[in-house]
Amino acid sequence: MTLDPVTLEILNNKVAAVTEEMCVTLQRTGRTLYVKETADFACALAGLDGRFFAYPRSIGVSGFVGLECAPTIEVVGDLEPGDVILTNDPYYSHGLATHLPDLQVIAPYFHEDRIVAYGWCFVHCSDIGGRVPSSISPTNHEIYQEGLRIPPVKLMRRGELNGDVALFLNANSRTADANMGDIRAMLAALDTGSRRIRQIIAQHGTETLLDAQAELTTYAEKKARAVLGRIPAGTYRFVDYLDDDAVSALPVRLSLALTIGDGTIHLDFTGSDPQVAAAMNIPSRGRPHAWLTLRILAMIHTLDPTAPLNAGLLRPVSITAPAGTIVNPDEPAATGVRHAAAIRVNDVLNGALGLALPAVMPAASSGTVIPVVVAEPNDRGGRNVQVVEPMIGGTGARQGVDGIDGRDSGISNLANNPVETVEAELAIEILRYGLRPDSGGAGRWRGGCGMELSFRILKDGTNVLGRGMERLLFRPWGRNGGRPGLPGSLVVNEGKPGERWLGKIDVLDVGAGDIVTFRTPGAGGWGDPRERDPASVLSDVLNGFVTIEGARQSYGVVIVSDAVDEAATLVLRAKCTSEERVVDFGPERAAWDEVFDAGAMDTLNAHLLTLPLARRQRYRRDIFAKTLGQLPEGFPRAAADEQAKADARDDFVRTVASLKG
Amino acid sequence: MNSTRDPLAAPVSSAGVRIGIDVGGTFTDFVLSDPRDGRLVFYKEPSTPDDPSRAFIVGLKALLDQAGLEPQDISVLMHGTTIGLNAIIQRKGARIGLVVTQGYRDVLEIARSRMPSSFDLHASKEVPLVPRSRVIEIAARFSSKGQMTLEPSEAEIEQVAAQLSALDVEAAALVVINGYTAPQAEEDIAARLSLAAGVPVSSAAAIWPEIREYERTLVACLNAYVQPLIKRYLENLREGLATEGITAPIVVTASNGGSLNVASAMERPVETILSGPASGVMAAVRLAQAAGLTDIITFDMGGTSSDIAVAKAGSPALATQTYVGGLPLVLPVVDVSAIGAGGGSVIWVDPHGIIKVGPRSAGAKPGPVSYGLGGTEPTVTDCYVALGYINPAGFLGGRMSLDAEAARAALAETGRRLGFDGSPSEIASRTAEGALALATTGMASSIYKVLAQRGLDPRDFVLMPFGGAGPTHASLLAEEIGLSHIVIPMAAGTFCAQGAAAADLRRDFVRSLRLPLEGIASLRLAETFQSLTRDGMDWLDAEGAGQARNFEHSADMRYAGQAYELRVSLPGADLDATRLADAFHEEHERIYGFRDAAAAIELGTVRLAAIGITPPLPERPIAVPTSSTAVKGARSIFHKGAWIEASVLDRAALRADLRFSGPAVVEQEDTTVVVLPGWSGRVDALGNLHLEKVR
Known about the structure:
The structure holds two protein chains of two kinds.
Chain A: H1 5-29, H2 33-36, E1 41-46, E2 52-54, H3 70-76, E3 84-87, E4 102-111, E5 114-124, E6 153-157, E7 160-161, H4 163-171, H5 176-204, H6 206-228, E8 234-242, E9 252-261, E10 264-268, H7 290-303, E11 317-320, H8 338-356, E12 370-377, E13 383-391, H9 419-425, E14 428-435, E15 451-457, E16 462-465, E17 478-479, E18 489-492, E19 500-502, E20 507-510, E21 515-519, H10 534-543, H11 548-555, E22 559-560, E23 563-564, H12 566-575, E24 583-584, H13 587-595, H14 598-608, H15 613-628, H16 642-659
Parallel strand pairs in A: 10-11
Antiparallel strand pairs in A: 1-2, 1-5, 3-4, 3-6, 4-5, 6-7, 8-9, 9-10, 12-13, 12-16, 14-15, 15-21, 16-20, 17-24, 18-19, 18-21, 22-23
Chain B: E1 17-23, E2 27-34, E3 39-46, H1 52-67, E4 74-80, H2 83-89, E5 96-101, H3 107-110, E6 135-138, E7 141-142, E8 148-150, H4 154-166, E9 171-175, H5 183-197, E10 201-203, H6 204-207, H7 213-243, E11 250-253, E12 259-261, H8 262-267, H9 275-290, E13 296-301, E14 305-312, E15 315-316, E16 318-319, E17 322-324, E18 327-329, E19 333-334, E20 337-341, E21 345-349, E22 355-361, H10 380-386, H11 404-417, H12 424-453, E23 462-466, H13 470-481, E24 485-488, H14 495-501, E25 505-516, H15 521-543, E26 549-559, E27 566-570, H16 577-592, E28 601-612, E29 631-639, E30 642-650, E31 659-661, E32 664-668, E33 671-675, E34 679-683, E35 689-693
Parallel strand pairs in B: 1-4, 4-11, 5-6, 5-9, 9-10, 13-23, 30-32
Antiparallel strand pairs in B: 1-2, 2-3, 7-8, 11-12, 13-14, 14-15, 14-20, 16-19, 17-18, 21-22, 24-35, 25-28, 26-27, 26-28, 29-30, 31-34, 32-33, 34-35
Protein name (chain A): Hydantoinase B/oxoprolinase family protein
InterPro entries (chain A): Hydantoinase_B, Oxoprolinase-like
GO molecular function (chain A): 5-oxoprolinase (ATP-hydrolyzing) activity
């Protein structure tokens, strides 16, 4: 190292603070909900290699520390002082942008005619055109439907706005003014970064700044390697499923082989499903992309919170993400709701890491984020559209600690909306917004409870949207004998005439008086529930997280008049049969796996990738239709008898085997 | 809402002796102001944390003796306390219950549904103030327009009251959804419940009728949580004082920089919980104003951390989003932000050989290595000692001597782990200077961020340090930020007590309206202000305020469809729609750089501050120093890698006309001021020490 340990730490402190000050500037001057309330933005400083050497810790989107600016900068070519690059396209920017509403800007910071660093910001803008308002719909199947594609262009030339670019932008958005407001806020943030970089150079010199960029990333890399070195070497496999891809009923498979050794980690996603004809593809371009490594970063940070947040953390991480799969789609796959798949990627990373580090990693969290939206007719002939609540569930239990009820920061850490502000804006009455008893997976340590939101519609002609509903079928899994959480659900007019249990919805039509109830899944438990301290079960019952019936059935604990009946509990617990599973996915997944054999699924997915893109989905649907046709309608939610499953499995394995050659 | 005249609240005479008392963790500080002869008397008594009123009474008697005054000479006691804050942080408040609208039992469990960290898989959520087992649902509800859509029957009240009684609670809070639209109706339900259950039930909407159920619930729960404790303490205190013949009214300082009388403080103790830091900031703002300075950054550096606050045009910035013991508080409070290291912050080396300062603190015990109380890890204070900033023999006015050699040895050991070469002495100096530079960088970065949130540039401000280490560290910090002016008041150690002695009476009132700014909005606004002003007047009367009163008006507004509101100060209560709109457009343009003249505007929460003005403390022209020479001698301090000779001055001997240049060290009873090379010092007529960067 050329920098002494004091100077390096001073620079570490300063450059991280610069990114936070950039964020503060952006948030203060930004204009839209995404910036102000949900903080869906970030700022960072990139080195000459285009990778971030400084990233904010306490504000903005936390997961994008691994993004790369270099491909975008290369496309634009020569840069001059005052230039600012704009892009939003996942393919042209090689994964810097991951869906079109994220407007990305990069400014070169010059000192004495040479570039010494780059400032970077992004904001999720309200609308960038495309088929639907807000530009995002799970049912888009090509990126062309998702709005204006902006390849890397100069938004600013030598400090002047490029009017042609502005014309294109304004002509292609439903919220052009708001977008320009947020772009101005990003420019203000880039200015803040530029000013502070000049100040650092004045205080410490250019060479110190450049040395610090290299050495801070090396420092982070060393810390990451030290953490990874503590994990037992080996290869850990984990497979999880999305319930479906929003345009068909077929589950979407995510398969991971995670190999640890010698302070490095390799993620092999081979065996994951081909890219889907819907908008949940993750455009990683085959790199250790932010959306494929979020849980790794969180794990490193958990085990060493002092590690600086920069690209060095990801240097020990390598990846295999076959082209044409959901984790590395080919152009022009739609990517608008890539976070829906990223939630499940988080689960497979968590699951595989948990096999290596059972004492550190939790069971599955609830694994869903549903912005419940109401669109109601207004007096002006249009519609009021408003998020009621972003519905999440809880976090999984881990060794020694219960999961957290009704909170989950796994993929995003959004604030909810006060019920009173929602009722002031919309003609609905929110009847219940609370935790869902008995939903958390049973275990020696209990999984976090899911949530319930129930509201009465007061206006006819209202629509309810619940995009992002997941884990209605495949449950959040439990660990080391812990049970899975309850799946989510949606019901209209529960317990009333005209009760309707619905699955996933895109747009639901409701009228005045209808009562809509969303329930999110509970998270997975950890350890054998019969080993849970009866006093903890009693406490859960007194607090209402578990019912008396739940205590009896799931924990074998008998509670009478607010006390544990110890004798009856002993008897009951002795009668329970144990089913120790390392991972308990729940009955639906177990049934699915019995038919759709893991090895055959790997083979099928490898074969599908050899087919032309245009034929893959049809081919895949046909194969599944054939096998599922031999099983009861609604399988695997609907149970099938053992013989039917065995026959179907044989048929599936035979079909796949015949594909070879 | 309704204030009735309290017999305990005798009018506060502005003519009599005022005494400010601040109960801190280590010392209870007293400041006595006698307007008859313009005297200020200071006194410190070691605190008695098991029963803070003991040190209060003992110290007060000693103070009176020292000043040669009798109990009946006191016209008012102005008191700051951290009892409420400590109870919340340690979760040692009362056993309380919560009654909420049916369907909302989880209002505290869900909170705003965020985790403290999205990167820490082992992070946990805050412990709710009221466990779910003590939350009861009630069939009561309002619509967003203020109609009662679910009215609790007598049977319902009886049933909820029975449940409440069975919980064996000392107090309870009531929160009805949309209660902010009908605070009186909610207060009536609380009264019925209280009567039936036989415990005090505070209505959230009556205390703070602002939209947002979770935050309002917390205000009510925090209030109930600290109420029994504070009530007992104030009652004990009053009794104890009475047996000593002291019957002067007690006024309690508030988090908003003002104060309230004992009866109000017992009713709404939640308004007092952040009064400690607020008082210090208020004292700094007043002293700065007396010295003709209106834009300051206060810098309070203590043992475990450093805090700053910003004042512009002579008023401190208030925040309505702050955290107490991990819980958000929406009441307006003087905005104090933690910015990093304190004197006790530990200096350490990570496994990769990189230096770190804090966040762990050595605290008072074992404390810094130089204290000789068993501390083995060097701290920021040890760096001051090692670099000659602090005279080891003169710490705390000579009452404590420090072991400089032990500090240097510990720092040399740290330096070796950093890979520094040279003699132990060289390594120690280099390590100490590096650690201070790192600590300074952390503080400066935080200041940039705090000011960026308000769109301010720190270089437009004067730095006003206080606390034990503030004046020692101030010029390092000013150099790093690029500030050119530092003002160090006399007796910065008893700042909070001074702030208390001069505090105005102040209470904030809110009402959430949520109307489009057209048609009847300006009428409704005027009506609301009238009603709030009446409440404010009643309150000030009940507090015994004099006729010097002030009312500050503001409103939260936004463009229709915008997701966020902007707080706009208003010149008065009676504004037509055009002037309201103008005020909003102007503020929007100032903050965001644009206005949207065509867009509809919505009026949100309306705010009124009712202020009873307390006469300022007498200005105290600097006394003629008793000692003829200010220069006590010289000693070496380490700066930029070399030992340099600094003159040592005695603060008590500094005359008003004296000017000197750095490097210098000014020693005073409670702290040491370091003046770096390139800075000059002067003392103004009021005794404030000004340090200015030589251009």
